[in-house]
């Protein structure tokens, strides 16, 4: 039994979601049922199935829809934990860092397409800190031992500024650069779940646990958990899944499942919110992050390049448990203020540059068996209840595999399961096999994809990128030959939406936020791509017009609430104050009147169209409607002078950036001035 090699039954084609649901219904009894499809739950399912256990995994939303997709995107050992370990001579902390560094190396090896080492700079602003930080970072390298990614090094002030020109020059004495890993978290989570499915685990998203099933053990007379009653969220059908043991890997919702098992279970989860914001790529160098170890209130702030953008975060504040955490304006402004502190005054950090914002709930845990309830574990805990429910809680992204191994070891022992040894160290994840750093070149050469698109496909799907490329449609242009983009400034293409359905995407949000990462990178671009995504998915999944509309609305709500569109749109509202010096008010009024020929006090698309024609510029009508609608605050189909002044005031304060109307009117004014024409005469008396 133990010597059997693990075979991969679904090497070529993944079973459909319908097939997975049928298997959940029709299997007499699983060995293990895992509840929760985040990094930890998916890791447990993969660990179990590769030990030849009959495994099921259910997730009530989408894989990685919770905390796992809202992380800082780092695969790290925890520099700051090491600092605590040394300061307090805390052996447990030290071992935790050592384990995380081992896991970091493993994760970079098993999913090389989704992860890579990233140099991170620690700017130093006083001489005495230099040796202190240097010693700490060298210890980090030492603890990693042979698994050190690359050696850390010290930089002079000039060299630091050369690598990171946006840094504040004053008082800077130098910098230290160390290496950690970075990954695409939601795709990594999905890769773990899909790998488990390929090995034969029955995994279904949008499958909710209604209640746990119990039976009375004839020998002891005690109640034992023996499965769960589940509901397919999409069809509403309910069914029972029986299993020898159940693993609770529900992150922030750990306690609600523990209470389902036993009303009297003590609470162990202490949720903490981490807010991150996304800014344009020009805020950070292409391949170097920044760590500010001493913010104004002691929290650590990271500033990292990710997917050609810049991520800044994180805050750390107690929060309520919710499935839809919302980033607050207060958190966003805290991060912006910290960012301003260490960027050069030449760089104006504008509120309008926040392209997306999100909040992830870290499920910190207190150990139920410890006397002192205050001792929040930085580590994870595995707990087995009287009825045999196994709970894995806490921990961090980087150590998901070690946590899964520990959980399964405990489960097998407690439930006397027949299982092989753990096989997940070095086990390649979905797409890792067949990936090479030059894979994208073959995609360009074989299919005629744009280089940027090919690089993105290789970094997202690894060896399976060819399957996505094969589905790509011919563009009809000279170049690229195939691959139609969903939105012009991002390398996501339409065939990825088709492929996403094979990867168990069921809603437009799954595609926007997790199969592609558009929702996390730029909410406005995501909103623009949405109708096309819904159209493609609707065709493939046979959605009715009503269902399509529901999907559009749900995705817009998601972008609005959870991805920071709401706080972005609140920067320009009816009540925005106009605070401009008089001279500027006059200048903007003149600009406005170049469009408002009849002194009506407002402009419409027709006015803008006329002026554009006079300088031979063509913009199609739908686009013009969109451009004006962004500024039309009372939504009456026209932009009043007051609304224009509110817009210009918000632009001046940096609350709004990239306003198409503001830039369009400015360039038109400049063009007209260059020509020195009195445009009214030419356009027939300003009718």
Automatic annotation (TrEMBL):
Its cofactor is FAD. It is found in: Mitochondrion. GO terms for biological process: glycerol-3-phosphate metabolic process. InterPro entries: DAO_C, DAO_C_sf, EF-hand-dom_pair, EF_Hand_1_Ca_BS, EF_hand_dom, FAD-dep_OxRdtase, FAD/NAD-bd_sf, G3P_DH_FAD-dep. It catalyses: a quinone + sn-glycerol 3-phosphate = dihydroxyacetone phosphate + a quinol. It comes from the Eukaryota. One of its GO terms (molecular function) is calcium ion binding. This is Glycerol-3-phosphate dehydrogenase, mitochondrial. The lineage of its organism: Eukaryota, Metazoa, Chordata, Craniata, Vertebrata.
């Amino acid at each position: 039994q133990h010597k059997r090699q693990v075979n991969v039954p679904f090497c070529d084609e993944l079973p459909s979601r319908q097939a997975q649901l049928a298997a959940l219904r029709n299997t007499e009894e699983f060995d293990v049922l895992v509840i929760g499809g985040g990094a930890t739950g998916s890791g447990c399912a993969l660990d179990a199935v590769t030990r030849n256990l009959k495994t099921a995994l259910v997730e009530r939303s989408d894989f990685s829809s919770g905390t796992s997709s809202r992380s800082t995107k780092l695969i790290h050992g925890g520099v700051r934990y090491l600092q605590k370990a040394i300061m307090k001579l805390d052996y447990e902390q030290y071992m935790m860092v050592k384990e995380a560094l081992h896991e970091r190396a493993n994760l970079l090896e098993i999913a090389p397409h989704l992860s890579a080492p990233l140099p991170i700079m620690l700017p130093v602003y006083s001489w005495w800190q230099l040796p202190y930080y240097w010693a700490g970072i060298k210890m980090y390298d030492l603890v990693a031992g042979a698994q050190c990614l690359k050696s850390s090094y010290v930089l002079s002030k000039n060299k630091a500024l050369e690598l990171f020109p946006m840094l504040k020059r004053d008082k800077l004495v130098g910098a230290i650069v160390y290496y950690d890993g970075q990954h695409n978290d939601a795709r990594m989570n999905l890769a773990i779940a899909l790998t488990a499915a390929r090995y034969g685990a029955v995994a279904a998203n949008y499958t909710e646990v209604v209640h746990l099933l119990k039976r009375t053990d004839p020998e002891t007379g005690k109640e034992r958990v023996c499965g769960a009653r589940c509901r397919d969220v999409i069809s509403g059908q309910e069914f029972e899944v029986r299993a020898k043991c159940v693993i609770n890997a529900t992150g922030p919702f750990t306690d609600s499942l523990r209470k389902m098992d036993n009303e009297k279970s003590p609470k162990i989860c202490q949720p903490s919110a981490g807010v991150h914001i996304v800014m344009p790529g020009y805020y950070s160098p292409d391949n170097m992050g920044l760590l500010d170890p001493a913010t104004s209130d002691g929290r650590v702030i990271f500033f990292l390049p990710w997917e050609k953008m810049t991520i800044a975060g994180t805050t750390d504040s107690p929060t309520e448990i919710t499935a839809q955490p919302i980033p607050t304006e207060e958190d966003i402004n805290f991060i912006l203020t910290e960012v301003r502190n260490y960027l050069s005054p030449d760089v104006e950090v504008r509120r309008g540059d926040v392209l997306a914002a999100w909040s992830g709930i870290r499920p910190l845990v207190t150990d139920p068996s410890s006397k002192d309830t205050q001792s929040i574990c930085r580590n994870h805990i595995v707990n087995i209840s009287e009825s045999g429910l196994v709970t894995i809680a806490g921990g961090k992204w980087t150590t998901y595999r070690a946590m899964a191994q520990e959980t399964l070891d405990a489960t097998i022992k407690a439930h006397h399961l027949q299982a092989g040894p753990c096989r997940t160290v070095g086990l390649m994840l979905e797409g890792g096999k067949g990936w090479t750093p030059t894979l994208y070149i073959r995609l360009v050469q074989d299919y005629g994809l744009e280089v940027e698109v090919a690089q993105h496909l290789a970094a997202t799907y690894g060896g399976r990128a060819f399957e996505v490329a094969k589905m790509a449609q011919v563009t009809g242009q000279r170049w690229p030959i195939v691959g139609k983009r969903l939105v012009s400034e991002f390398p996501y293409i339409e065939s990825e939406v088709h492929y996403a359905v094979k990867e168990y995407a069921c809603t437009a949000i799954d595609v926007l936020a997790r199969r592609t990462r558009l929702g996390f990178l730029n909410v406005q671009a995501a909103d623009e791509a949405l109708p096309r995504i819904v159209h493609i998915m609707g065709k493939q999944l046979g959605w009715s017009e009503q269902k399509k509309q529901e999907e559009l609305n749900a995705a817009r709500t998601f972008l609005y609430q959870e991805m920071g569109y709401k706080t972005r749109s609140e920067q320009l509202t009816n009540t925005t104050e106009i605070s401009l010096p008089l001279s500027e008010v006059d200048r903007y009024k003149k600009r406005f009147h170049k469009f408002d020929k009849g002194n009506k006090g407002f402009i419409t698309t027709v006015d803008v169209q006329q002026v554009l024609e006079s300088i031979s510029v063509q913009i199609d009508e739908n686009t013009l409607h969109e451009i004006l609608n962004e500024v039309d605050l009372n939504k009456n189909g026209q932009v009043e002078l007051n609304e224009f002044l509110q817009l210009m005031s918000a632009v001046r304060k940096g609350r709004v950036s990239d306003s198409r109307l503001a830039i369009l009117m400015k360039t038109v004014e400049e063009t007209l001035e260059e020509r020195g024409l009195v445009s009214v005469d030419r356009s027939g008396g300003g009718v």
